[in-house]
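Annex B. Sample input.
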Amino acid sequence: MAIIVRKEWFGGLIGSTKEYKLNKINDFTFRSIKQAVETNTFTHELSQYLLTKGYNQTNEEIRIVDNLSEYHVSNKILTAPVLMWMETTNKCSLNCSHCFNKKNNFDDLEFEHSVQLLEQMHRLGVYKITVTGGEPYLYPNIKGLIKRANQLNIGVRIFTSGCIPAIKIEALKMTTVDVVYISIDGDRKNNDYIRGRDSYSSAFNTIDLINTTYENKPSIVVSTTLFEENLQNIEELFVDAEIAGVKSILFRPLLKYPWQQAELGQTPFKKDSILEVLDRILDLSRRYGIEAQFSKLPYLPYMKTVFQCESPDDTFYSSLIDTKRLNCIGGELVSGIKADGTLIPCGFASFNYSFDNGTYSTSISELWRDSHNINLMRHSNANEDCVSCGIKHMCGGGCHASRTPSANIDEYCLGKGDDSNCSGHLPNEHFIQDESRLYISDQHITTKCGACGGHVA
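Annex B, continued. Sample output.
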């Protein structure tokens, strides 16, 4: 594990490549840490400051990254993503009815290129990668990819169906993977109906195999697409997850995005039922002692964890993003690379691929700064109702992928259709009071959009 201290336009960031800690620091703190690292001289006061933030410089490598340019300062953008996901392949052994990533032509990210991308991320100070697919365990050299990320001290998470041969899983047992997300969509009957026969058992067998064979045992999170049909018997999943020793389940409500042409095989949630759904999930979470994560931007008022910030009067987002813009993390804090090498800010939104956004010809750093798709997300403005909304600092104006072109508003916004103050339509007890504002934690920074998770209670 390493601690990366990155120079940014507002001062800097300090974070762990393994644990979910990320702190905003001011310029004086950045310069103090940089000088201490360069001279190998940490004052007692600086060591104590780092300890209060959860960092022990005597046990962990501290790496300074300073790529700040005038462009980053004048445009108030980060020098690089905090987290990147890498779609190693779009091949998959399953054919899930609700999957939005189905392909007729299959791609594998070239292994040599994937290593080059990891080395670029290392130089830029990217904290973590999320390895996805398709099915990432079907990537021909998944072991080599993870080993190189380990050597570069980049944190690693994997999303998998869990329906893969044991030999593929065992191949990674000597590598370090921090979190493995395993897709199980509800109870056995519903899961096997949409993911394939015996996929429920296969996924839980994979959980057991990882727990018993991995030398550096990762955290395991069950990732569940939630829809009207599987909610009725969702308690079965909690029962089996508890038996398997699972500590956390990530729930993603099934949504139909405006750009999707095909009809979904399951029933997406209606906006009005979300509150009831959340209450039921949180009740099961308390009863079985399993953390319930729930990802979707408009529901951030339910989140309890806070972003650790130098000033209690300033949130990371309000200092980073213009108030008229969407507080979407795509292009602001995260981006991803598809199996064909294209860099995109979001896995759910629709983009124009006629522009050159390819990592085979252009560096991550240049694309992060100049990419058409990145800047399309980065400069998406919220509508007037969102700008004046009392909780925009929580939901950020909603999800770009869910916004309809005509209304420019997230179809799943909980306050849409009445007045501009969303908070007027949610029960007060659902709002978490932390000082006077809700801060966004690293769990949200790296996962709140649903491509990679989100934290609830």
